[in-house]
């Protein structure tokens, strides 16, 4: 093992040991993904944080994965702006405030993608990710820029959720989107993933991803959270810390 690799491994072990019995890890900047993996015959939703992602105020050395209930996304005050036109899928009119995580990387904000890179086309023919439940003080939407200045909206809470709040995922793919929130507070997004097997049948998983919007939005008491799992597996270039069901 090279010295640099050994040093990164020791740093990661120290990070995990520090957080083994703490409250949720805060992700506030750098690259991360909501990811899908298939392990031990089960589909797994998770966070995947890349090298340099800021967790609990410190940049990460290497990569790490957490279960949805082990971390949350901080959407700080630097994500707040005022819309310059009407945004009907968020119920906003010109001048209204909005907090956004854009589909392009901006220093100091989470750059959160959605990925199925850990799924193989040899095993799966297609996959979807749906927003199936939501709680929060305002409205939320996920979209990409469309042609002629329009927007392709995949999830939106305005008007309620239904079967159209669905994102088709390319197997082995990775993409970035715009996340929008209309007011400060705590937003919980329940996501349901379904992956269709090449030989027939499907596997599914459900996870709730938490977003704290506004720098002053406080984390609830640890008693209302699931505590971090203490078990971990360190192997290769990725340090996995997802819960096993």
From TrEMBL:
Transmembrane spans: 222-239
Q: Does the keyword Membrane apply?
A: yes
Alphabetized UniProt keyword annotations: Membrane, Signal, Transmembrane, Transmembrane helix
Which top-rank group of organisms is this from? Bacteria
The signal peptide annotation in the UniProt record is: 1-22
Instruction: Quote the NCBIfam families the UniProt record gives.
Output: choice_anch_M, P_ac_wall_RPT, PEP_CTERM
- Full protein name: PEP-CTERM protein-sorting domain-containing protein
> Lineage in the entry?
Bacteria, Pseudomonadati, Planctomycetota, Planctomycetia, Pirellulales
């Amino acid at each position: 093992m090279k010295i640099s690799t050994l040093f990164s491994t020791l740093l990661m072990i120290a990070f995990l040991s520090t957080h083994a019995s703490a409250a949720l890890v805060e992700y506030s900047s750098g690259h991360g993904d909501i990811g899908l993996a298939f392990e031990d015959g089960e589909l797994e939703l998770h966070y995947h944080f890349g090298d340099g992602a800021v967790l609990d105020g410190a940049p990460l050395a290497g990569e790490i994965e957490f279960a949805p209930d082990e971390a949350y996304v901080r959407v700080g005050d630097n994500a707040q702006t005022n819309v310059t036109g009407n945004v009907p899928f968020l119920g906003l009119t010109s001048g209204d405030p909005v907090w956004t995580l854009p589909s392009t990387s901006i220093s100091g904000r989470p750059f959160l993608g959605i990925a199925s890179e850990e799924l193989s086309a040899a095993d799966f023919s297609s996959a979807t990710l749906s927003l199936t439940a939501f709680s929060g003080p305002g409205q939320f939407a996920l979209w990409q820029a469309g042609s002629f200045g329009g927007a392709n909206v995949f999830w939106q809470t305005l008007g309620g959720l239904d079967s159209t709040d669905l994102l088709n995922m390319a197997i082995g793919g990775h993409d970035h989107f715009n996340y929008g929130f209309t007011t400060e507070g705590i937003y919980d997004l329940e996501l349901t993933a379904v992956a269709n097997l090449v030989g027939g049948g499907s596997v599914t998983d459900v996870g709730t991803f938490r977003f704290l919007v506004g720098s002053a939005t406080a984390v609830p008491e640890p008693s209302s959270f699931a505590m971090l799992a203490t078990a971990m597996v360190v192997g290769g270039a990725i340090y996995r810390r997802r819960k096993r069901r």
